[in-house]
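User: structure tokens for this one?
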Amino acid sequence: MVGLGRMGGNMTVRLQRRGHQVVVYDPSSEAVEAAVAAGAEGAASLVELASKLPDPKVVWMMVPAGNITESTIRELGGILGDGDVVVDGGNSNWHDSQRRAEQLAAGGISLLDCGTSGGIWGLANGYCLMIGGDRDAVAVVEPVFMALAPDDGYAHVGPSGAGHFVKMVHNGIEYGLLAAYGEGFEIMEGSAFDLDLEQIAGIWRYGSVVRSWLLELLHDALVNDPGLAEIRGYVDDSGEGRWTLEAAIDEGIPAPITALALFARFASRQDESFSAKVIAALRNEFGGHAVKTEEPS
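Assistant:
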């Protein structure tokens, strides 16, 4: 296991609980020490990690998409050999995964792109795994997939790139679901009724057509912070919503819900919207509508 953050660390523990021996590496020596204390075998470098693995070597990466993934795969390409397998369990762009698989294949190394969903709850509940790549390499790693996923929670979805493509669309759908819950609860919060949102989220978990795990998590959040007063309404994005829209454009598929959900995240980061200023100014110009002025500093 390369990368011992919230996902990689918990995945290491879940694998160990199911009888696997795990060698770990992370740039943070503290993270490695914590994993070793929990039963893993530590390594101070990727070279040392590879030296401790039996053939065929299987290296699972849980590192951020982008430059870190790129450099780690490049380094592993110079360390591993024929028949070895690298699993990228992060949120890489599927085009990058296809390119990297082709590069590693020149050295006899297989790359599996594994879309991974489950978050911090995966340790207890298991991880949904969407795997792209060569079928023979999937067979090598299958005992690990079975240990990490709940029953019926993983699948080989296609060739290189397919795993990260499916995970990308999964996250695009998630954008829309989160936005719908957010809008609905804001409408209730702003209504003339003095509604108990925790109570409503609670009953919707049972029998309602909008019940879901996300709703259960929202109920938990409202229990801990009824008015969500401790949370700022700033919503980041990992990039996968953008990639989903790019795929929709390439395929000519209308995806307005995903687009609006992404743009709503952008809007959440603005303390003041220049676009809104333009609209207010124009309404004042053509209709004499009142405008609110900035408070003097």
